[in-house]
Design a protein that fits this description.
mainly alpha
């Protein structure tokens, strides 16, 4: 049957097919790939204003945006994802986080029939990923596939 965490991740993967998040929490991956803040072993709580709280807020905005899309609220989804991008830009969240958020925004714009804008977001995401971690990775493949779907639509 699997652990609660495994069931949550499987459920999350199903609802966000194509967004590249993989249904996992971003914190460890963000720290490993984007140089994000890591706490010393056993340190359970951030101090006020800690960068990882802001990264968590960006993650929450992105998830809320995809949930808004799931219920057909394109305008709200776009607003939330643009807020996540603005916050990320303000704190220097990093190329991978920005690329993931831009991929999600591309999905929203594609779903709303705004193909030119969706393709622009996918292209920005691909450029960021290539510059930071190269092209031989799952995130690049996911965004490239989303871009191809938008071209074929």
């Amino acid at each position: 049957m699997g652990s609660v965490k495994d069931r949550h991740e499987a459920k999350h993967r199903g609802t966000h097919a194509g967004c590249g998040c993989g249904g996992r929490r971003a914190s460890a991956r963000v720290a490993a790939v984007d140089g994000g803040h890591r706490h010393a072993e056993g340190h359970a709580e951030c101090s006020g204003g800690c960068r990882c709280k802001v990264l968590g807020r960006i993650r929450d905005l992105s998830r809320a945006g995809m949930q808004a899309l799931d219920i057909g609220s394109h305008g709200e989804a776009e607003r939330l994802l643009r807020e996540a991008l603005d916050l990320g830009r303000t704190v220097g969240a990093g190329a991978v986080i920005d690329a993931k958020t831009r991929n999600c925004l591309g999905i929203v714009l594609h779903s709303a029939g705004r193909m030119v804008e969706a393709l622009a977001e996918y292209h920005r995401a691909l450029t960021l990923i290539e510059g930071r971690v190269g092209v031989d990775n799952r995130l690049y493949r996911v965004v490239a596939a989303n871009s191809r779907k938008a071209v074929g639509a």
